[in-house]
Amino acid sequence: MTGFLGLAYPWLKAAHVIFVIFWMAGLFILPRYLVHHQEGLAIDGEPERWIEREGKLRRMILTPSLIVVWVLGLVLAANLGLFEGQGGLGWLHAKLLLVLLLSGYHGWAVGYARKLNARKPTLSSKQLRMINEVPAIAVSLIVILAIVKPF
């Protein structure tokens, strides 16, 4: 389907996938940084190193990728007729819901990094390690929806 994008459609779709990969790379590493940051709170100089690493990851990869993913994704969705009530896009509605939840997870992780910056952790290291799996589960479901289009 090319819709209003015409020949630009596959290029925008490719760019969308590329930035999804960048975003997911950041979402896979940030929670691991948080575990190490939390476990290093009692070590002199260690928290400051994690604050710097997390900040660079957020500024250079996470936030720009999130923005590009959303912009391109919404343009591609519009191209498919999402905002015109096009039928047969149940899979896209479900995908958008999961991407919205994943964006919320992104926000939570950034917020938890701020808690660690203030030396006020609220989760155990084990809980953080469990929460690390959220992006993998979400992206697996998103890929299935986008490729299989089950409904």
Summarize the structure.
This protein is an all-alpha fold and 151 residues long. It starts with 8 loop residues before the first helix and ends with a helix.
Structure description:
With 151 residues, the protein is mostly helical. The protein has one domain (3-148). 77% of the residues lie in helices and 0% in strands. The longest helix is centred in the middle third of the chain and has 35 residues, at 46-80. The protein is elongated and about 55 Å long. The two termini are 17 Å apart.
Which range best describes the helical content: under 10%, 10-25%, 25-40%, 40-55%, 55-70% or over 70%? over 70%
Q: Describe the sheet with the most strands.
A: none
- Mean pLDDT, as a whole number? 96
Query: Which residue ranges are poorly predicted, with pLDDT under 50 across at least 5 consecutive positions?
Result: none
* Structural category: mainly alpha
Number of β-strand runs: 0
Number of domains in the coordinates? 1
H-E order = HHHHH
Number of continuous helical runs: 5
Work out the radius of gyration: 18 Å
Gross geometry: elongated
Distance between the termini: 17 Å
Q: In percent terms, what proportion of residues is strand?
A: under 5%
Draw up the topology in text:
Blueprint: H1 9-39, H2 46-80, H3 90-117, H4 125-131, H5 134-148
Helix pairs in contact: 1-2, 1-3, 1-4, 2-3, 3-5
